[in-house]
Fold each of these.
Amino acid sequence: MSGDAPPDLPLVVGGVGVAPVSWVAREDPARPEVVVGRVAAGDADVADAAIRSAEAAFGGWSARPVAERGALLRAAVGAVAVQADDLAVLLARELGKVLPDCRGEIAFAQAFVAYCTEVAERSLVERVTDDAEGRLTVHLEPYGVVGAITPWNAPVILALLKVAPALATGNTVVVKPSPLVPLTVTQVLHTMAARLPTGVLTVVNGGGDVGAAIAGHPLVRKVAFTGGGRIARAVMRSAAEQLTPLVLELGGNDPAVFLDDADLGDETLHRAVLGTFLTGGQVCMAAKRLYVHRSRLEEFTERYVAVARTALVLGDPLQEGVTVGPMASRAQVEHVSGLVADARRRGGTVTPLGTLADEALVAGGYFLRPVLVTGVTDDAPIVATEQFGPAVPLLAFDDEDEVVARANAGQGGLASSVWSRDEDRAFALARRIRAGFTFVNTHNRTGLALRAPFGGMGRSGFGREFGEEGVREYVQTHAVNLPATVRGGAGSASAYPGT
Ligand code: NAD
C-alpha cells in the first residue's frame, strides 16, 4: 500500500479474489483532480456470495471459546497497527480529516477490539439456577451473519463499532462501507480478515444496491446501520422482509447548553470549538446548536471567536498545525453553504472563524471556511436541521425550562452537552435533555468513553454502540427451563394461574 501509486483494493469473498462488477475511485477532497485510490465493487450477487461464505463460517467461529476468538481478533487488529502510519495518511487523503485525528481513528481500532473482547469474555457467562422453582439456564447466543452498512465520516471507527462486538460474541460479519470514502476501511478490514478464518469477516464495496441486498437477505440475522434517516428507512424496509432486527445509528441536531455559571476559559472554549468543528463538523455527535445564557452572550461570543482564531486552521489535512481540512464532497459544501446563505437572508450575522493555512489550496478543493451564525431564531434551517458541516448557530436563552424545551424540539436526540462549573447542576439538567448521550463540560470525541453506551433516541435511531450495551446488541438470550412443578413427574401444573 505504501509508495506513490494509488492503491487498487480488490474484492475478496471466501478468501479468494472475485472479478469486480465496477471500480469506485476516490478523489482527494483537498485536490479533487487527484485520485487517491480505487476499490473493486460488487453487486447483489457478490453480496449474496459473501453472506453465504459468512453463514458457512458461522458454526465454526461461534463454537470457539470466547477467549480464543478474542485472542484471534486482537492478533488480527495487531496487524493493522503495523500499518498505522500508512493507513492514517491514506485516511487523511481520502476523507480530508487532519492527520493527527486519522492516527487517532486507526489507534482506536486497537483499543476498541481489546475492550470488546474483554467485555465478551466477562459477559458471555451462562446463568445457572437450580432451586425450589426448578432448573433454569440462560446463555447468550450470537445471531449469525451480521450485515454492517456504514457511512463515510469516520469510516474505520464506524465499521469497527459493529465488527468488533459482533465478532467477539461469535457472529460473522459482512461490511458494506460508503462508496464515498472506502479505501482505508477496506484496507483495515482486509488486513483483519486475512488473519481470521475464511468467511468470518468480508467487505463488499458498492452502492445502495449492495446495501439493500445485505439488509434484505434471509441469511442476515442482524443489520447494523449508521447513516442518515432517509437511507435508514430504506434499510428498515429491506430488513422488514425477513423481520431482521436492526441497530440504527442516525443523525442528530445536537445542542450544547452553556449555563450562566459556565467556565469560559481558553481550555474550555477550545473544547467547545473543536466539539463543533472536528472533521469540519462532519460528525454525528458534533455540537450543532450553541445555547448560551443571555447574561454571558457577549462574553461568550467574543471569547469563542478569539479562541477559534488559533484553534481552527483550515488547510491541507496532511500539513502540521492544520486542524480543519476540506469537506468530503462538493455536495456537502453546497448543502452547508445553502444553510448559511439562508441564515444571511433571514438577517443573521455570519462571522468567519479561524485562519487559512494555504489560500490557493483552499480555493481549489472542497473547503469551507468555519463560521459562527448569530441573530437567527430556532426556526431557521441552520438551527432546525443537521448541518453536518463547519457552520454553527449561537442562540441566547433566559432560563433552564426554556432551554430544555428548545433543546428537545425536533424529532431526534443523539448527543448534547451541558456546560457549568457546578457538576451536580449540569448532571441534573442533562437528565432533562432527550438524547442518548450528554457530555458535561465537553462535547464530541473528547467526551466519549469506551464504557459509556452511545446511541440515539427518537429519530436518531435505536440500539447502542460502546459500553457493555454495545456488545450485548450482538447476542440474544436462550433460556432452558425445567419448572419444579413438572420435575420428577410432579404433574402438569402451570406457572400461570388459569392456563
Ligand atoms: P447515508 O445514509 O447516505 O449512507 C449510509 C450507508 O448506506 C452507505 O454505505 C450507503 O452506500 C448505504 N446505502 C445507500 N442506499 C442504501 C439502501 N437503499 N439500502 C442499504 N444501504 C444503502 O449516510 P452518509 O451520508 O454516508 O453518512 C452521513 C449520516 O450518517 C449523517 O446523517 C450522520 O449524522 C450519520 N451518522 C450517524 C452516526 C451515529 O453514530 N449515530 C455516526 C456517523 C454518522
Amino acid sequence: MKTNVFPDNFLWGGAIAANQVEGAWNVDGKGVSSADLAVCVPKGTRREYTKQVEAGIYYPNHEGIHFYEHYREDLALFHEMGFKALRTSINWTRIFPNGDEETPNEAGLKFYDDLFDACHEYGIEPVVTLSHYETPQYLTDHYNGWESRRMINFFEKFGQTVLSRFHSKVKYWLTFNEINVITLNPMMAGGVDIPLSDKQRLYQAAHYQLVASAKVTAWGHEHYPDAKIGMMMLYPISYPETCSPADQLENMHFMDQHYYFSDVQVRGAYSNKALKFLKANDVSLDFTDDDRQALAKGTVDYIGFSYYMSMVSSSSPDKKIKVSGNMLDGIQNPYLETSEWDWQIDPTGLRLSLNQLYDRYQIPVFVVENGLGAKDILTEEQTVDDQYRIDYLDAHLKAVRDAIELDGVPVMGYTAWGCIDLVSASTGQMSKRYGFIYVDRNDDGSGSYRRYKKRSFDWYKSVIETNGANL
Ligand code: BGP
C-alpha cells in the first residue's frame, strides 16, 4: 500500500456533459443545440445529425438520463463515493436559446445556480466546461456555426455571462471540450458541416474557436483572478509502428496535428510548424492583429485532457485502418487489448501522456476524462458485476500515481468519464456504459431511469477514501 502519493487537494471525481445527461431539451426556455439533432447509430458508425427535430426520429439526448430532474439524487450518490469534484458543462442553449440574444434566459441560469449550490452542499467542486459538443442550432442555421467570425462575439457573451454569474461558485473552468476535435468531427464540435478534406474551412473554424477561447480566458482572468481557466484536448498519444525513422517522422506529424491547438492555448501563438502546415495545405486564415493579441493574452492556467486509448502511426501507405477509436481510427497495436468498442486499452499510455504534456508545457495537468465504455448487465441483485471496469480504472489510476510519484508530474485531479451512465457522444447509445452507477435506460429509450450502484461504486469510494493508497 502506497500512501501520500496523491496530493491532499487532489480533485477526485467524475465527469459528465450537459447534453449527455440533462435531457429536458426543450424545457424552461432552452433552445435546440446540435446535440439535440444527433441520432443513435450502431457501433463503428459515425453519429448523424438531422437539420431540425423531425417527428418519428429518436433523439437520445432529448431525455439524457433525466439529470435535469434527478441531479440532487445523483449528487447524493457522488457524495457517497466521496467525490471532491464534478466536471460538467453549461448547455449554451439554456442560457442563450438561439445563441445571439441580447439577454440571457434566467430560467437557464437559475438551473445552474441550483446545481452548483447543490454541489457545494455536498462538498463537491464543480469543474465547468463552457462548450461541450452543444452548439446552438440557430447559430448553425443562420451563421453556419463556427465557420463564421460572428461566433467569437456570441461565445464571448455566453462566456462572460456565465463567468460573471457563477464565479463565486465555480473556480475551475474549461473553455471548449476537446478543442482539437473540430477538424475531426466539425458537426459535433462546431455545429458545422465541413468535409474533412476541406482544410481551409476546417482550420478557419478552428481559428475562430481558438480566438473565442482566448478572449473568454483573458476576460475571466482580468475579472476573476482566482478563477483557474484551462484548455481541454483529446490527447491521442501515438507510437511509431516501428523504429524506422520514417515511422518516427510520421508519428511526429500525427502528434503535431494535436499540438497545433495546445501550443496556441498554452503559449499564446501558433507555432512555426503550425504556420508551415497551413501554408503547405494552402490554408490562408482570416487572422487579424486583434486575434493575435487575443491569443497572446488568453493563455490557460492548466491542461485538461481526455484519455481513453493510444494510437499507432505508420509511414507504410498500405497500412489499413484496423481499429476504431475515439474520434480517430487507427492501426492495431499488437501489444494491447481492445474494449468492446475496439478502443485500445493502454494504461501506460496515460502515464506517458501526462509526462509528454507536462514536459512540453510545464503547467499543471488534469485528467478530466478517462474510462471504459462497456456493456453492463444488471443482475437479479440489482447491481452490475463490473470487475472489468475496476481493472481498467485501477490500472489507469496506477499510471497517474506513477506519473506523480516517479516522474514528478503535477496532476491536479482525475474525473472518471461518465461516472453515471449517460448517452454516448459518438454513437448516442446508452448501452455503452462508463458509470459507477447504472441507469435503467435502453438504446431505444425505454426504461425506468432508476439508478443502481455497480460493484465499481464501492471500489471507487474506497480509492477516494484512502486518497489512492489502496490502488
Ligand atoms: C469524449 C467526449 C465525451 C465522451 C467520451 C466517450 O471524446 O468528450 O463527451 O462521450 O469521449 O466517448 P463515447 O461517448 O463516444 O464513448
